[in-house]
């Protein structure tokens, strides 16, 4: 048999496992976001310790490395000035004739379905720095969003 058709093991042909990608830019978080990161890392540490299978343990360790990196690089965002939108703000806006409440948070805390947007999201970037009563441009439309109210996200 030719050497070209010989295979020593299945390990030779597995796809490499790369690290989970980190979002670009600074890892700005709210206090709640940091607590969620720490809780996720602690849960994964416990899961790694309890896991008996090598392959499953490696998957958990990979995810744990991601969360440990997020924990060590986390920077709690400074509290925004009163009346100015920033990370940690709950913003009441009017878009397309409809009112909406949006929380601006860090990447790992974001949940767009619950109107918790990462500060890096296009809508969040349009809002950051705006003041109550101001109208801001968005989506190529001038004054598309009206800022109705701004408050700190309650704990």
UniProtKB/TrEMBL annotation:
It holds the Pfam family GreA_GreB. Residues 1-18 have a biased composition (Basic and acidic residues). Residues 1-24 are annotated as: Disordered. Residues 83-151 form the Transcription elongation factor GreA/GreB C-terminal domain. One of its GO terms (molecular function) is RNA polymerase binding. GO terms for biological process: DNA-templated transcription elongation; regulation of DNA-templated transcription elongation. It comes from the Bacteria. Coiled coil: none annotated. SUPFAM superfamilies: FKBP-like. InterPro entries: GreA/GreB_C_sf (IPR036953), Tscrpt_elong_fac_GreA/B_C (IPR001437), Tscrpt_elong_fac_GreA/B_fam (IPR023459). This is Transcription elongation GreA/GreB family factor. It comes from Sphingomonas leidyi.
